[in-house]
Write a structure and sequence with these properties.
mainly alpha; Arc Repressor Mutant, subunit A; two-stranded antiparallel ribbon; about 55% helix
């Protein structure tokens, strides 16, 4: 999986990294049991600070996407609390839908986008 960081983005680098790993899992580029590069290897590969990678890995572990083993490193190991995930999704959708309403995006357009996104994961 190729990780690309947009240094001109307003999104924090650790967030970009986390989101790309989550997208890799969602699109099956990363499978449960796959090892991620070590913090040092990934930092060197994409040219960022090791602390940034460590922060991303720590949050992914807290959110249940990876486990960290002293010998094997970071491993994709999904342990998602579905109820918590639904509540988090609901909060994020509220903000996204409020923004879309402000930009005159219709309910039908939102539904089409959701269907398009879901179809891309199949």
């Amino acid at each position: 999986m190729v990780i690309e960081i947009d240094y001109n983005s307003s999104e924090a680098i650790y967030t970009q990294l986390m989101n790309q790993i989550i997208m890799g899992i969602a699109t099956s580029q990363l499978q449960e049991g796959d090892s991620l590069p070590s913090v040092r290897q990934l930092a060197d590969r994409i040219g960022i600070n090791m602390h940034t990678v460590n922060k991303a890995y720590s949050i992914l572990r807290q959110e249940g996407y990876i486990t960290i083993d002293r010998r094997r490193g970071a491993i994709i190991m999904l342990d998602i609390d579905k109820h918590r995930a639904i509540e988090e999704l609901k909060q994020n959708l509220r903000v996204a839908l409020a923004r879309s309403t402000c930009n005159m995006i219709t309910r039908e357009e939102v539904h089409e986008l959701i269907d398009e996104i879901f179809d891309s994961y199949e």
